[in-house]
Amino acid sequence: MASHSLRFCARSWHVKPMPCEHRGSRASASDAAEARASRGVPWTTRTRRLGLHDPADVALVCDTGPLLALLDADDPHHEACVAMVEEVAEDILIPAPVLVELDYWVRKALDVAIWQMFVEDVVRGAYRVLATTSADLLRAAHLEDQYASLRLGFVDAAVIAQCERLGETRVATLDRRHFGVVRPAHCETLTLLPSAR
User: Fold this and answer.
1) Does 57 or 82 have the greater pLDDT score?
2) pTM of the predicted structure, to 2 decimals
3) Are 73 and 5 contacting, i.e. CB atoms less than 8 angstroms apart?
4) Does residue 7 contact residue 20 with C-beta atoms inside 8 Å?
5) 20 to 30 A from 156, CA-CA: which of 4, 95, 140, 170?
6) Would you state the pLDDT for residue 25?
7) Which residues contact residue 183 at a Cβ distance below 8 angstroms, ignoring those fewer than 6 apart?
8) Which domains, from first to last, does the chain contain?
């Protein structure tokens, strides 16, 4: 990890990205945000046009890993996650348990100020938070029990449970070990993004 400076950050698609202290020669996550804003359609417009009413109807469910990689320009997966954000048309949906895990890792590995900027981005609409329902909680607990030998944790199980509830077959994750093995109820396997290079 690099020093605890604000070397980046995945600013909202709807607000001007803040300057970065650390930028590599390739695209940063803030560049991805600008590119996405320049060609994207705001959620409200897109959902009205498609006749959708819930942000979950057009969404990419996101696990902790890609978010952490977006926030850390020195992460080995940073560029792949930036490219993923540039390419997807969907809103990025964060299951509520992911926020707890992300807060822990950002505070441990980066800087509390990065967490504060991320929260501001969530509030401004760069990401949408998905509440965990009672059904999600029960399903996650069942998955943890079913995959006890895999040591599937609650956050990963909750992400999978919410993919099932939403009928989403793609998930943004760097955790191939868990997400590549678990067989969700609604499809044979989940498609994992970013794609392995």
Assistant:
1) 82
2) 0.74
3) no
4) yes
5) 4
6) 29
7) 189
8) 29-193 (3.40.50.1010)
Residue 185's region, left for phi above 0, alpha for psi from -120 to 50, else beta, is alpha
> Which amino acid would we find at residue 20?
C
Q: Which of 81, 56, 89 is nearest to 168 (CA)?
A: 56
Q: Decide: helix, strand or coil at residue 60.
A: strand
How many C-beta atoms surround the C-beta of residue 197 within 10 A?
7
Residues 179 and 173: beta-carbon distance below 8 Å: yes
The β-bridge partners of 144 are none
Residues 109, 12, 67, 180: what is their CA dihedral angle, to the nearest 10 degrees? Answer: 180
Helix H or strand E segment including 128: strand 128-130
Tokens at residue 132, please?
């965990």
Alpha helices in the chain (DSSP H): 29-39, 43-50, 64-71, 78-87, 96-109, 112-124, 134-146, 154-166, 176-179
pLDDT digits 0-9 by tens, 1-43: 443 333 334 443 322 233 334 333 223 444 554 444 444 434 3
The answer to whether the peptide bond before residue 194 is cis (omega within 30 degrees of 0) is yes
Coil, strand, or helix at residue 191?
Answer: strand
As given in the structure block, the two tokens for residue 183 are 């067989």
